[in-house]
Here is the input.
Amino acid sequence: MITNDIRYVGVNDHQVDLFEGQYVVPNGMAYNSYVILDEKIAVMDTVDARFGEEWLGNIAKVLDGREPDYLVVQHMEPDHSANVLAFVERYPKATVVGNAKTFTMLGQFFPDAPEMKQLTVKDGATLTLGKHTLTFLFAPMVHWPEVMVTYDKYDKVLFSADGFGKFGALDVEDEWDCEARRYYIGIVGKYGMQVQKLLKAASTLDISIICPLHGPVLKENLGHYIEKYDIWSSYRPEESGVLIAYASIYGHTKAAAEALGKELEARGQKVVLADLAREDMAECVEDAFRYDRLVLASVTYNGDIFPCMHAFLHALTERSYQNRTVAFIENGTWAPAAGKVMAAALEKSKNLTFAQEKVTIKSAMNAETMESIKRLAEELVK
Here is the structure.
């Protein structure tokens, strides 16, 4: 029970190994759905295709013999919309509520769908259920173009679609910040400007509860969650620290990364080392956005950089990486080129400060390399 009138009818998924085919979710996922009980009844979103019967069973239990009047579709991504037809088949008198782009996508996902009752709403439109009045606020590209969120003025609830979501099923307890950050940076991170617009619109509302489509319902300390979203969506560093992300073949580049880490720690800096070839890429990307400094260390490979470093840099630039200090460590036995390639990959990024000291290793570290590492450590501290 969320409030006296709002009930949770979502499901937990412990079958999924990769969310959206790429994000490791050891604690599973939650697909959230809600029912608003009033003179008229509204169901908020559906769930993943594999859990349709469980979801419909949850709804029936909450309805206790009543019939729903509306199904509000806030987001057409299949983990939330896959059971629209199953709902309509079960409750043919119900009206599906969405915007024009919602129904365009509905026709694309379900080209053979039977006719259904539809209500197409515009930005700012309202729907009265009785004492509950729902206001629909469009949130395009957070993170699909049809997304809208819904505000219930009576209970002061914001149904936030994918906003304020996190990885993890609801029957597993874990820290919100870490998995919400990885979720946000990975999935929504490119669309910071659009999230800022949504936060601005939400700031005009009296919100006591946030009901996302993934992760727990947020009822306490809402300022903390909103502050995190403001930081993430404005691309500001969240903490003071240095991520050293390295791509090494025989261990020499790794040794340089570790040596720099020790020099920085000796100077009182927080350091995170990331082996890009072995660690979860989404975690590495998350840490790059979390901290204010980034060191990229790569071996030269085919006159270029190692493939995992390519993937990492693409993940950063795709998500508008900016407002940080970046330094380079390159390695190459006969023609070191990694530093130049990595710098070129970031040349279109905004507001990056590049360290003057560039560490160049020719095969393996030596005394000269170590002195360069110490100079880089001093520069990063300053």
In short: The longest strand covers residues 291-301. The chain has two domains: 6-233, 242-381. The CA atoms of residues 3 and 155 lie 7 Å apart.
